[in-house]
Amino acid sequence: MADITTIDPNFKASALPHDDIVWHDALDGSFSLHGLYDPIGTKRYTRLPLSFETDARVNAGVQTLMFHTAGGRIRFKTDSPYIALAVELPQVSLMSHMPLTGSSGCDIYLAREGSSDARFVRSVFPSMQSPAYSGCVDNPYPCAEVTVNLPLYNAVSRVYIGLKAGASIGPPRAFTYGKPVLYYGSSITQGGCASRPGNNYMNHISRWLDCDFYNLGFSGSAKGELCVADFIASLDLSAFVMDYDANAKTYLHLAATHYLFYRRIREKHPNLPIIFISYSTDRLPPYKTPAGIRERRDLIMRNYVRGVESGDHKLAFVDGSTLYGDRDTDASTVDTDHPNDLGFYRFAQRVYPAVRSALEETL
User: Fold this and answer.
1) How many whole angstroms separate alpha carbon 233 and alpha carbon 265?
2) Tens-place pLDDT, residues 319-343
3) Ranges of H-type helices in the chain
4) Which of 127, 135, 241, 321 has the fewest CB neighbours in a 10 Å radius?
5) 17-164: which CATH topology?
6) CATH label, 177-362, candidates 1.25.40.10, 3.40.228.10, 3.40.50.1110, 3.20.20.60
């Protein structure tokens, strides 16, 4: 059978087109890193402190997935006429329902200097043959604001930014809302199954509102452990979005953890806007029946009402049954469970008003 790249050259990985590239380690202090825990200090791409890797209070899934770089971003400003990217992964694993562009690839956004109107320009991603990959994009601006979104479902060993010799590297434009919005949740929060990192729902919201964010989505592993709540409570945030009920295997587990998790954070941050989201789809494995999802939704709603009645006026609720809209909802997932790009876009549209309202309170 013929290789597709011999039939359509558009699918061929391009060689780096410049011979004057100077490579810069993304951890050398020249770049602004977001959505990661102390990457300069630890010299690791991780979303949680390294102590969590051996902390018996958290499940093994979190101990692995904390090294997946979902929500991790590299930002900077440059006058280089091109931006090259080279990435080394520890391994490449093919997911049956998610492309390598999303699970293991990066995507690059560019905007004119000083502008928040960042636009997607290029995905850079591996093949199954090699965990190292590279790519390059031309810069159409005299000076560009650059954002590189890191993989959603893979760890990253090294990232290098390639610029023309003599090009400048400067700090990026500040976000309108500099304190991040933190999202804690399941595989959907982590980004399964977006076609590329920039299409995860919080990336959409971040671009629309010009706000920083922190993704603590742990696929199948967001269990509401209080040590994770304590870590979240240690951060200086603009808002907190709590969306982990899909990973509570039983209603009883959710009932035992949900309100306590919320209260743990509220005790440390009495004025932090907090948003509850309930689970979204009604076509699930047997342990997540439609009736079970409604039961969970009602529990989260009761916790919301309980919080408001206790005097918490910084609390909001987003009904998960509305997240994919009311028309052609079956077109919004890849497997009746995880969103595709359309699903994430619709998800973002429904969550956006709550996040916007939360952030407006902080100005």
Assistant:
1) 5
2) 998 899 888 888 999 988 899 999 9
3) 4-7, 39-42, 60-65, 100-103, 187-190, 201-209, 226-233, 251-268, 290-309, 341-362
4) 127
5) Jelly Rolls (2.60.120)
6) 3.40.50.1110
